[in-house]
Amino acid sequence: MANVFAFVETRGTDVRKVGLEAVTAARMLADKSGGGEVHALLLGPPGIAAKASQIGQYGADVIIVVEHAGLANYSPEVATATAADRMKSGSYRAAIFSTSAQGRDLAPRVAARLGVSIVTDVLSLEIEGDSIVVRHPMNIGKVIATIAIAAKPAVIAMRPNVIAPAQNEKAGRVEKAQPAIDPASARVKVIETRQGGGGKLDLAEAPVVIAGGRGLKAAENFKLVEDLAAAFGNAAVGATRAVTDDGWRPHSDQIGQTGRLVSPQLYIAVGISGAVQHLAGMRTSNTIVAVNRDKDAPIFKVADYGIVGDLFEVIPALTEAVREAKKHH
Ligand SMILES: Cc1cc2nc3c(=O)[nH]c(=O)nc-3n(C[C@H](O)[C@H](O)[C@H](O)COP(=O)(O)OP(=O)(O)OC[C@H]3O[C@@H](n4cnc5c(N)ncnc54)[C@H](O)[C@@H]3O)c2cc1C
What we know:
Elements: E1 3-8, E2 10-11, E3 14-15, H1 17-32, E4 38-44, H2 52-57, E5 62-67, H3 76-89, E6 92-98, H4 101-114, E7 118-122, E8 124-128, E9 131-138, E10 143-149, E11 154-158, E12 173-177, E13 208-212, H5 222-232, E14 235-239, H6 241-245, E15 266-270, H7 276-279, E16 287-292, H8 299-302, E17 305-308, H9 311-327
Parallel strand pairs: 1-4, 1-6, 4-5, 5-12, 6-11, 7-11, 13-14, 13-15, 15-16, 16-17
Antiparallel strand pairs: 2-3, 8-9, 9-10
């Protein structure tokens, strides 16, 4: 039996889906270890306390609420010090973060502050004996390593979207706390956070991702990809580096080794060859569909469904088919 700590990621007074994923992962781990408690840290500006009951619904036994006017934006120093202090004061088996943009910054800082082990970009986690056993992609996703972490506490950052947030109501006792350092004294201040994609679905969180490559031939042809995404209604648009380097799409849309990591339920690759650097960012997607006119394109090696054909014919037909199917649901 062991207690598990979860960091709940927020944006303003909203809890992010990756925050609920962290609580769900922590709950699973606590239950698998014989029923320890989940202690979730919720940091944010005034108003964030109202979200504590939601965190309880997802399986937190204790919600540590740190409300402060200086926390309207993510503060690396305050979040690190507050999470690390809390972890020191409890005997946690593990601490769960997300490998989101914020989690990539925060989790290593916390691990370094405490001098403990960290594994990022984790795809799954289990308990085996005294170890937590996690799966983690290496060599740009060509190899999936299985790592047994014996050290305590283990800092684990989950890949977004690999665990669906699951309701599992617990008492959700609220403990109010202060930030470990005064936000006004922080040397690094996030002045503003701008969301890419005009406020549309976040690439890392969308259940469906439609990504376009150089096969689209020109920036304006991304309209085909956007129309298909709109037909789904719950899809985000991504791109290859060839496309973002050419300025057809913003760099924030790039998926791959040097871009975003995505793991949606459905990934549709449109005119993408499937270079290893691209696969590194999407090969853990649940179902992969590829549309390419070259039957030997490497993308077909990872695809569950392949359509060999001209995307300029296939995508409009697919969009129409999705629209029709949605009408009847
Ligand atoms: C250090 C490093 C890091 C990198 N990081 C990334 C990364 O993070 N993400 C990333 O994506 N890339 C990355 N790259 C680049 C990567 O190697 C590839 O160059 C890039 O992914 C190729 O993009 P693409 O598939 O759009 O283009 P291409 O490889 O040119 O493929 C275009 C595909 O479209 C098909 N096609 C053409 N016309 C049609 C049509 N009418 N209908 C259907 N299919 C059609 C072609 O058959 C072809 O397969 C990186 C490279 C390096 C060296």
